[in-house]
Amino acid sequence: MMVPACLQHEAMQWQVPVQKLEALYHPDPKAGIGVMGIPTAWLPVLEKNGFTVFQLQKNPCANIRAAAMILSAEHAEKPATAPAPACLKQAATAYHTNYSILLTIYQNAMNSKPAQGYGVMHIPGQWLPILRASGFPEWRVKHETCWNIAAAAWILSAEGTQPPTPVNVTQSTSGIPNIPARIAADAELASRSSGVPAPLLLAVAWQESGFNPQAVSPKGAQGLMQFMPGTWTRFGHGSPFDPLDALLAGARYLRHLALRFHSWRLALAGYNAGGQAVIQAGYRIPPFQQTQRYVPSVLSHYQKISLESR
């Protein structure tokens, strides 16, 4: 009896004996779901891991993948808990997150009762628009385990990247700094003159300087929006240490980048790494660890400020 080539691949992925997986395979099983005869009692766990009944019935390789997961789980110390997929470690590496923390989130989600959120990692619905803007297909985040895990790793990276410590700025209960009233008002003025959303300008200021107008980085970036002197000469007027001048210049620069790349996500990447770096990366976020952490971090700040201001 010929078995699909994916059977051996799934045995390796889930670290189960090929022979045991082959013994379950039958093109026309008398009981259960699909070619592996998946017991219906496993459906709740499988659905948490992104499988659908339709997939299990119509897609032999998805059915084999589910059977391999079940075999692995049944030989684990906790039989009712599926082991972490291999892509969990891959996601931790790709998004520079702590694997142990990501694994703990996965295990807690698997052992908890169904909660509001999507997929095995219980992705909160409010993150979906930001994930879409960052290249994550919504359907896959909702329904495919590895995409869901990758999205969770991306969010963990965003939330784990802290801006520079602000000077004399306290934190609200939501984790957002209490933005000085003058800076908030200046951001609204800069927004009206440029069309760049005020919460996005504030998110960049939070990430760049922690709302410190006098900040100077070791590399020489200056002020609230951390302009290098060369970029300030092109986009700035007045002083980079004046909050309104800095926000107006930041708005001009972000608008320039957004019109060039037709994407706020790429505009933020260009703000951090330079527009030429985005072009050289094929109009994608450049493969620099700092930039790949910077973009989700600013988008996370943007989401929090937008929600707070409603």
TrEMBL record:
Coiled coil: none annotated. SUPFAM superfamilies: Lysozyme-like (SSF53955). Residues 190-281 form the Transglycosylase SLT domain. InterPro entries: Lysozyme-like_dom_sf, Transglycosylase_SLT_dom_1. Signal peptide: none annotated. Pfam families: SLT. Belongs to the transglycosylase Slt family. This is Transglycosylase SLT domain-containing protein. It comes from Acidithiobacillus caldus.
